[in-house]
Amino acid sequence: MLTVWKLDRLGRSVLDLVERLKARGVGLKVLTGAGAAIDTTRPEGKFTFALFAALAEFERELIRERTKAGMVAAKRRGRHVGRPRKLTEERLAHARALIAEDREKAEVAALLGVGVGVATLRRALKG
User: Fold this and answer.
1) How far apart are CA 79 and CA 37, in angstroms?
2) What pTM did the predictor assign?
3) What's the CA gap between 80 and 92, in Å, rounded?
């Protein structure tokens, strides 16, 4: 029997963990919090856990859909989605000037601190 203080202390993927425990013949019991009625060694605990797991999965899917919709809307408005760009417009202008002086792109990338490779620099210059 695995006993936890609160269900959220167990980890992110509770459903996956319970399946692994079930395969080993180990039950789950939650002592406090929203999941306090869960004891997967008893039928009512299995039922409660199944309901909680289904609701959590549903909520996760809704969050995923909203996030994707927000990203699409931001892109339509011309906003950058994702990690912040490594090279600002000023640094790109500096890179173009260095390349115009016949400096190697790998050298320029290293000077600007964008890593050993030139892929980041090449993508940024492409636009």
Assistant:
1) 46
2) 0.51
3) 17
15 in Cβ contact with 53 (< 8 Å): yes
- The residue whose two tokens read 């009625």 is 37
For residues 6 and 30, the answer to whether their CB atoms sit within 8 Å is yes
pLDDT one-digit tens code per residue, 83-97: 887 788 898 899 899
* Burial profile 64-94: b = 16 or more Cβ within 10 angstroms, e = fewer: eeeeeeeeeeeeeeeeeeeeeeebeeebbee
Handedness of CA 95, 101, 105, 109 (dihedral sign): negative
Q: Rounded CA gap, 69 and 93, in Å? A: 34
**CA–CA distance, 25 with 19 (Å, rounded to integer):** 10
